[in-house]
Amino acid sequence: CDCSKIGLDSLWADTNKVSCYQIPVERNYTTPRGNIYYLAVAVAPALSSEPKEPILYLHGGPGIATLSDFPYYLKTKTFSLLRQNHALIFFDYRGTGFSEPNKCKTLSDSLNAISDTISTEVLITKQVLLYSNCKSDLLKQDILLSDFSSLQSAADAEAIRKELGITGWNIYSVSHGTTVALNMMRTFPENIHSVILDSPFPPNAPWIDFVHPFDTCFKVLEKKLSEDSFYAEQFPSIRNDFIKIINHLQISPLVIPASIENYEFIHSSLFDDGDFAWSVWKAMLDPKTIRLVPLALKEIASGKNTVLMKWALFFNDPNSFGEFSAAQNRAILGFETKPRFEEQTENYIKKRFPEFAPFISIGLDDELNKVFRPEIPPNDYFEPVTSDIPTLIFSGEFDPVCPPLFANITSKTLNNSTVIVVPSASHAAMFADECTREMGAAFYLNPVIKPNFECLLKRKQRSQQ
């Protein structure tokens, strides 16, 4: 199709030789009904005259559109390097971006418009009503929430492969995209040559919340500081600084002045303890900003509201990772991340991590899932994925979402896998620098050869200096 139909500028697409498609896929892989959705797909050809097998990109999320950032990704050093020898295939997951179905487009805005000054009970009531109305609207259009899962996204990717006539391809996946990739490795392995799992979230992950991995990241940062005498003296307890700020914002949220132009705040003009916790989490996602966290915590804890204001404005763009669909996100996470044992329950997490209470929303999630996605997956849905496909697993030392523990768990049943924990890196660790990019590119060219760790050792030495 013309690329303008899937949100891409036609002139830009022609200039970059990008082809665009609207590809039909079965609405439900496990229980076909004969109905279809059309998915938005874009392909950038390899620059080499003798290209190797193409690479499918599986974005994180869920709920985040992919193609809106396609022009940006093609300019990055990582994808520019990969495109030298491989065509790149990007697509919007069903229910996001320009892929059907058009799911409750106003839901995200309506959720963001709810004031954060109301009580938790009223908040739950308002959100439950919004999701309930969304589900009713979808049912009127014969759109079933049972058509959304990581397995279904894997089946969509396989349908795209067939429609494009691709006999073999590689996969690069990140975060939630690795869950989709692992489902592809389990269910559609025949045409996959190699896989990179970057910041993996396996179906058998022990944690489904944000609190455990955030605490793990915090501990790594605390350990780094304690190992240097200067930093140990300057930052004796960043955890206490964090708690002090949280306690203060619970009582006295920061007011964002109305005079600040072009600022779309997530909930309202108030920046509270929850907003601050998530802003620190977001800072920890990027190795360029994680180094600011100790100093920011120290300064803000000492009462410097000017620093807090700058921090609030910088780290709270609700669409910083791409256009977000709350309905698609809830449809998948509500199905796949319900607590399954004690360590995942709200009561356990609150007792174990009282300092990170602003992250804990399991009670709210439970109420939303009751009305929006009450089904429970079968037990085998959470079994570890076994495979002999050559797999390279990247994990960032500071990752607050998918810590190195997840990489090690993932690799245990992947017989032909190698784990690379990247020092000083965070989420999407292959993007860290030239060293990790080239390791990934070399793997795709010849996945049988084990990676050369020499440059990684140099990176580790630099991080220790």
Number of strands: 10
Give the quaternary arrangement of the chains: single chain
Q: Name the helix and strand elements from N-terminus to C-terminus, one letter apiece.
A: HEEEHHEHHHEHEHHHEEHHHHHHHEHEHH
Mean pLDDT: 92
Q: How would you describe the shape?
A: globular
Distance between the termini: 53 Å
Number of helices: 20
Strand content: 5-15%
Rg from alpha-carbon coordinates: 22 Å
What spatial order of strands do you see in the largest sheet? 1-2-4-3-5-6-9-10
Secondary structural class:
alpha/beta
Main β-sheet description: 8 strands, mixed
Uncertain residue ranges: none
Commentary on this structure:
With 465 residues, this protein is an alpha/beta fold. The protein is 44% helix and 13% strand. It contains 20 helices and 10 strands. It has an 8-stranded mixed sheet, with helices on both faces. Strands 7-8 form a two-stranded antiparallel sheet. Strand 9, helix 18 (404-411) and strand 10 (417-422) form a beta-alpha-beta unit. Helix 15 (326-336) packs across helix 17 (362-372). The longest helix has 21 residues, at 120-140. The N and C termini lie far apart (53 Å).
Lay out the secondary structure.
Layout: H1 10-15, E1 19-26, E2 36-44, E3 52-58, H2 70-75, H3 77-83, E4 86-91, H4 107-112, H5 120-140, H6 150-164, E5 169-174, H7 176-187, E6 192-198, H8 211-226, H9 229-234, H10 238-251, E7 254-255, E8 270-271, H11 273-284, H12 287-290, H13 293-301, H14 305-314, H15 326-336, H16 346-352, H17 362-372, E9 391-396, H18 404-411, E10 417-422, H19 434-445, H20 454-464
Parallel strand pairs: 3-4, 3-5, 5-6, 6-9, 9-10
Antiparallel strand pairs: 1-2, 2-4, 7-8
Helix pairs in contact: 3-19, 5-17, 6-7, 10-11, 10-13, 15-17
